[in-house]
Structures are given as structure tokens and as C-alpha cells.
TrEMBL record:
It comes from Xaviernesmea oryzae. InterPro entries: Acyl_CoA_acyltransferase, GNAT_dom, Rv0428c-like_C, YpeA/RimI_acetyltransf. Keywords: Acyltransferase, Transferase. SUPFAM superfamilies: Acyl-CoA N-acyltransferases (Nat). One of its GO terms (molecular function) is acyltransferase activity, transferring groups other than amino-acyl groups. This is GNAT family N-acetyltransferase. PANTHER family: ACETYLTRANSFERASE (PTHR43420), ACETYLTRANSFERASE YPEA (PTHR43420:SF44). Residues 125-257 form the N-acetyltransferase domain.
Length: 257
């Protein structure tokens, strides 16, 4: 029974990892066996610049492959960053601990059954203007203008259908969400609420609008990834019917300086 349960969980992880890669595509995707190297010069996102082991049984030459991956990351001007999900081999985790790598930034991948009410919300049409969405996202998050070109290229590279959602108050952007419709799955990316307007239900409203749009277009399940330390966002998503599927964390070489 335990083996069957483990197989079922890993199947869910594989499915969500695959749609996650399509929802937030990297400029380069390079495979070394089942280890996926994702690199993106135009944007510093860890998800877009990470080594992703995708098979617990792929434990061949861990030290040599990490060294080769490190050279690829260095050539791209990025630090070697390993994203560890339940698909990573335990031997790799042991190796990282033994070599002094440090763990940081844990995230939780959550899902919700849209037939249970998570698809309720305002019937809002998504934006068609990528630049307007990016303007709002940068203004709300306070991220630097230098990320504009990278965000534009990422959004343009998403192959599944997307919905760009924006809420405004007093002609200022208040909340944004990117929805990616991939078959019967809808993923949420880039969810953000303006700091001065948090606690007013805007996050719930923009997420529900995105989920309703996805549900009306055939989605049956929603998914998202949220920082494990982001208590307000976790509380919101749980209220909307999301529950944890799995976690992942990043590892990097320890800086001794």
C-alpha cells in the first residue's frame, strides 16, 4: 500500500512539475539524463535558473554531473542552484549536505478541485495587453524596471492559453494574477496585491476571477506555488479550497565569505 501511495504522489508531482515548466518557461532547457537544467539570461527567477532532478532513481555520477552543471550556470552568469522536489534522488540530497550546500526558500505546491466552489467569483475578462499587465505587476511588486524585458519574453513564450487579470482602484493597479490554462489544469502565477491595499479582499477577488475564467474554459483543477513562509497567502489559498500536494526547496553552494 505504501508503495502504491508513493507512486500516486510521485505521479501527481510529475504532472504538476510538467505543467509548471510550461507555465513559466525558461529560455534554455537542457537535459542530463532526467536532470533538467533551466537557464534564463533575461530574468533572475530561481525557477528559471535551476537544476531540476526529475527521477528518484537517477543517481549516476552525482558529483561529476553537478560539476558539469555548474559550468553551464557559470557560462550563463548564474550561480548553481538546485531545486529539490520529491522527484530528486535521496543520494543527491545526501551529497549536497556532505558538500556543504545550503538550503533556502522553501515553496509549497497546492491544488484545488474547481468543482468544489473554487471557481466561483467575478466574471472578469482577462487583459490582452501584456505591457499593461507588466506595468501593473512591476508597480505592485516594486520590482525594478530592468525586469520588464525579461517578463515580456517569458509571457510571450508561454504556449498554453493565458489569462492576464488586473484589478484597479482609483486608476491605480491594486492586484494582478496570471492564469495559465493547460488542458484541465489552470495554474496561477505572478499573483500580487499592492502593499497599501492588502487585507481588503483584493487578492481573493483577483484569484477567484482567474479561477472562474479557467473553470469556464474547461479547467477542473487549479494549482499554484507559494512561499512556505508567506502566511497570509497560505491562509487565503486554504480558504479558497487549496491544499498542499508537495514542497520543494532550493540549494546553493555556501558562501564562506
Amino acid at each position: 500500500m505504501r508503495d502504491a501511495t508513493t507512486a500516486s504522489v510521485l505521479a501527481s508531482v510529475r504532472r504538476l512539475e510538467a505543467v509548471g515548466f510550461r507555465a513559466w518557461p525558461a529560455e534554455q532547457a537542457i537535459y542530463d539524463g532526467s536532470w533538467l537544467i533551466r537557464l534564463t539570461r533575461a530574468h533572475p527567477s530561481k525557477r528559471l535558473n535551476s537544476l531540476n532532478p526529475l527521477d528518484p532513481g537517477d543517481r549516476r555520477d552525482i558529483a561529476g554531473r553537478l560539476k558539469a552543471a555548474g559550468k553551464r550556470f557559470a557560462a550563463a552568469g548564474r550561480p548553481l542552484t538546485i531545486r529539490m522536489t520529491p522527484l530528486a534522488p535521496p543520494e543527491l540530497l545526501d551529497h549536497l549536505h556532505g558538500e556543504g550546500f545550503e538550503r533556502f526558500d522553501e515553496s509549497i505546491v497546492m491544488s484545488a478541485d474547481l468543482s468544489q466552489g473554487a471557481g466561483e467569483g467575478l466574471d472578469q475578462l482577462p487583459l490582452r495587453d501584456i505591457n499593461r499587465f507588466i506595468d501593473a505587476r512591476l508597480a505592485i511588486s516594486g520590482e525594478p524596471e530592468s525586469l520588464r524585458a525579461g517578463l515580456c519574453s517569458i509571457l510571450a513564450a508561454i504556449k498554453p492559453e493565458t489569462g492576464l487579470f488586473l484589478l484597479q482602484s482609483a486608476d491605480r493597479p491594486s492586484a494582478v494574477a496570471l492564469a495559465v490554462l493547460d488542458g484541465e489544469l489552470i495554474g496561477l502565477e505572478q499573483v500580487a496585491v499592492a502593499e497599501a491595499e492588502r487585507g481588503q479582499g483584493l487578492g481573493k477577488a483577483v484569484v477567484q476571477s482567474a479561477l472562474r475564467w479557467g473553470h469556464l474554459h474547461g479547467a477542473r483543477m487549479a494549482w499554484l506555488a507559494v512561499g512556505a513562509a508567506n502566511a497570509p497567502a497560505l491562509a487565503l489559498y486554504r480558504k479558497l479550497g487549496f491544499s498542499e500536494v508537495y514542497r520543494y526547496a532550493y540549494f546553493r553552494e555556501r558562501n564562506e565569505a
